[in-house]
Amino acid sequence: MYYIMVYDVNQKRVNKMLKLLRKYLNWVQNSVFEGELSDSQLERLKHEIKKIINPSEDSVIIYEMEEKWLGRSIIGLEKKEIGTII
What we know:
By secondary structure, this protein is of the alpha+beta class. It has helices at 11-24, 39-52, and strands spanning 2-8, 26-29, 32-36, 59-65. A hairpin with a 2-residue loop joins strand 2 (26-29) and strand 3. The longest helix is centred in the first third of the chain and has 14 residues, at 11-24. The two termini are 20 Å apart.
């Protein structure tokens, strides 16, 4: 399945989230990641996210898609080429 994940976390947890999500998904913009994950990868990622965030002040939104987007336009700087995971 293809996912877009966005997060809004306290500044002191931003680096941990960035490092974690880069292991699983492609970084496309500040606090925005996308890519394909298996069911087990998604569950493992959710488990790791729950260990980092404070649910009373942080949020993570996961958009699920059956297929990749139909079209994609970028205006300005593209942060990272899709398909490149650091």
